[in-house]
Specification:
This protein is of the alpha/beta class. It folds into 2 domains: about 240 residues, Aldolase class I (TIM Barrel); about 70 residues, Non-ribosomal Peptide Synthetase Peptidyl Carrier Protein, Chain A. Helix content is about 45%, strand content about 15%. Strands 3-10-9-8-7-6-5-4 form an 8-stranded parallel β-sheet. It has a two-stranded antiparallel ribbon with strand order 1-2. Strand 8, helix 9 and strand 9 form a beta-alpha-beta unit. The longest helix has about 30 residues.
């Protein structure tokens, strides 16, 4: 699959952008576990054009994460264009690698974004969505992609027609989450319309499917049944970043990898924690790792007390010692639980 000049290989598996999840340390871990491309957290266009430190910091990337997309969101056309130009020059503005792709977030369903007309809120204004996309494509040098949903609700699933209109703006790929905005993340993702977009003979850009890719088998089904060019894994990677390795192995061999043992999960958690500390320092690095640490060990019996320790400790040394205690206590326990904090 090619996005502009970027060759992602055959049947690529991508890490979806997730706010408060896909920070630099998690992106690195997912890349090391086999993700073919990763995305930043959502970068607010209004924050970027105000030179807000937090927004600019989200654009800091490294060569180790490449290829990487910076995803921007907003509802004001002029602000979105200015933000896209800043993302286009992220290596100069924020430092680091910059980005290989600029992705437009027309898919986030949370009220604080969609309720203001941004993210999937734009599904109620498809003309404006297309206009903003065209303006951004015309304004930047990097390839532009879009991530969106089926529609606003069950009565307005407009994605088949909308996909053609977005393609006409010059975007280089389209990611479709198989739910409407009103579904949020409830119920099952509907891949039938993703398949209809892909089988449309007028579509020629890569179509990336997203929604309920929770196992290697479901990933294979997405490719084999619906014919998508790539897939995007979101919530199922949280607490389970090695899902990319499992998927890639299954796609290439048809065989499942054995479940990751507790000791191996400790190794990965330690690596993740150290990256977070290196990138953010001890205070923020520990605080923002709390959402990840206990999820690495979901399913362990009698883990409540240890989990509380993981999410309350403020000293790096104690955290590493606690992880070592997990290794010593549960290292030989087979752990087949793959559910994550979102329950998918």
């Amino acid at each position: 699959m090619n996005i502009g000049p970027l060759d992602l290989g055959t049947r690529p598996v991508l890490l979806a952008p997730m706010e408060d999840v896909t920070d630099a340390s998690f992106r690195r871990i997912c890349k090391e576990c086999g993700a073919d491309m990763v995305y930043t957290e959502f970068v607010p266009s209004e924050g970027l054009i105000r030179d807000a430190d937090k927004a600019i910091a989200k654009m800091v990337t490294s060569d180790a994460e490449a290829p990487i997309a910076i995803q921007i969101y907003g509802h004001d056309p002029e602000a979105m264009v200015r933000a896209a130009r800043m993302a286009d020059e992220a290596d100069r503005i924020a430092g680091g690698h910059g980005c290989d792709i600029i992705d437009i977030n027309f898919g986030c369903p949370v009220s604080k974004i969609a309720g203001r007309g941004a993210g999937s809120g734009m599904m109620r204004e498809p003309d404006k969505m297309v206009r903003i996309t065209q303006m951004i494509v015309d304004a930047v040098h990097k390839p532009v992609t879009v991530k969106t949903r089926l529609g606003w609700d069950d009565h307005s699933k407009i994605i088949v027609e909308l996909a053609e209109r977005l393609q006409d703006t010059g975007i280089q790929a389209l990611t479709i989450h198989g739910r409407t905005r009103c579904q949020m993340y409830k119920g099952e993702a509907d891949w039938t319309l993703i398949g209809k977009v892909k089988e449309n003979p007028r579509m020629h850009i890569p179509i990336i499917g997203n929604g309920d890719i929770t196992s290697a088998q479901k990933a294979a089904e997405a490719f084999d049944r619906w014919g998508v060019d790539g897939i995007m894994v979101g919530r199922a990677s949280f607490g389970h970043p090695w899902i990319f390795r499992e998927i890639k192995h299954f796609l290439s061999t048809g065989e499942e990898l054995p479940p990751l043992g507790v000791a191996q999960r400790v190794d990965l958690a330690e690596r993740h924690l150290q990256l977070s500390l290196d990138l953010k320092g001890p205070v923020r690095g520990i605080y923002e790792m709390r959402r990840h640490l206990s999820c690495y060990f979901k399913g362990l019996p009698g883990f409540k007390e240890t989990r509380i320790k993981l999410v309350t400790t403020t000293e790096p040394e104690i955290l590493f010692a606690t992880l070592e205690e997990i290794r010593q206590r549960w290292g030989d326990v087979p752990l087949t639980e793959t559910a994550n904090v979102y329950g998918v």
